[in-house]
Amino acid sequence: MAIIQPFKALRPQPQYSKFVASKPYDVLSSAEAKIEAQGNPHSFLHITKSEIDLSENIDVHAPEVYEQAKQNLNAFIKREVLFRESKPCYYIYRLIMNGKSQTGIVCTSAVDDYDNNIIKKHEFTRPDKEQDRINHITKTGAQTGNVFLAYRNVNDIDAFVEQWTHTKAPVYDFVADDGIAHTIWIVNDDTAINTISNLFQQQVPVTYIADGHHRAASAAKVRKSFNGNIPQGANFFLTTLFPANQLAILDYNRLITDLNNHNEESLLTALQKNFTVLLKGKKAFKPTKPHQMGMYINENWYELNALPGSFTTDPIGILDVSILQQNILEPIFNIVDQRTDKRIDFVGGIRGMEALEARVNSGEMKVAFSLYPVTMDQLFAIADNNEIMPPKSTWFEPKLRDGLLTHLIYE
């Protein structure tokens, strides 16, 4: 069963909350982070993307970057922008985007659960990305990145969250510049804290990483690095747990730099082996059902529908990202490994079809594919079978903000 704990969050004074809260470090480039933080000395990007305070030419993985993050974190504390909670607490975090809300419980989850597959995974991680967060956590002593976990909803947990958020005042409540509302309640009553812990321990057998595989893997490897002399805080890592019935996965689309010696005509001919191909014209085509894709090339959209028998029905094979790989990327474009091939790029569905069109129209890319999103049930089935999704299969929105709640591993 899932073991979670309250924690003494490092968090902003209420008047600074909107200024501190920043987009996750891994959705912004260094240049984008510098622009986001410009004129805002309280932005948590000074800690999670601390290269923005150093020379533009610096290697973002240089030791000086992690040292700068540590110095900036200490400065935030010294200036009393951030303070440490006096006792371990849980927090309830609600996000509202485009009128749709999702509400989760912020806590720390056991590294043992990660190691023992109580916290289930569905993606491979990249060593370079892991090492970046390992260095950041070790140097700062802080888990600044929240791991987004999902679980099959439990009525008793839903009822607790509903009652608490209706009867208590939030500690933070603001709308970010991108229009997403962020509201956080503190759960500091001992009886309520015990109720939450017990509900998860008794009624939630497993949780699933929705977003944050690298952050979770890094937390586990940081603990292992202590070689037995483990700080108590390193046995747990920062997570927010959301009931799956409040979540939706967005599409994660593909762009390719060249046609692998095809022209448009020969590409369309090759596609007809496994798809029906319909010209849709200038209007962007966004798939409305599984096994349907859009393709954008030479300022035209096409609708592709996978033919019966062109894919398998096992948990991995039935995914549209798998159908794309098996029937298009590998046989037509000679893209065997999406994780390492430099000819392919990925765009989250939050950016819309216009982002695909812009990059093809600019000449940077030759062709784009729009996909139907993976479902939560598919994610659960794959994780339950200890299978791994193709890379860049899921995109979750809205994103949790960094800086509002940080877990310190050293007491």
Provide the β-strand percentage band.
Answer: 15-25%
Terminal Cα span: 27 Å
Strand segment tally = 21
Helical residue percent band: 25-40%
Mean pLDDT: 94
Anisotropy-based shape: globular
Q: What is the helix tally?
A: 13
Based on CA atoms alone, the radius of gyration comes out at 22 Å
Characterization of the model:
The structure is a single chain. The strands form 5 sheets. Strands 1, 4, 5, 6, 8, 9, 10, 11 and 12 form a 9-stranded mixed β-sheet that branches. A 6-stranded antiparallel β-sheet has the order 15-17-16-19-14-18, sandwiched between helices. 32% of the residues lie in helices and 24% in strands. The longest helix has 16 residues, at 63-78. The protein has 13 helices and 21 strands. The chain starts with a strand and ends with a strand. The chain is of the alpha+beta class. The chain has helices at residues 17-20, 30-37, 45-48, 63-78, 111-115, 127-140, 155-167, 190-203, 213-225, 264-271, 320-333, 353-361, 376-384; strands at residues 4-5, 10-12, 82-84, 90-97, 100-110, 119-120, 142-143, 147-151, 172-175, 181-187, 207-211, 236-243, 249-250, 252-256, 275-281, 292-297, 300-306, 344-348, 367-370, 395-396, 407-408. A hairpin with a 2-residue loop joins strand 16 (292-297) and strand 17.
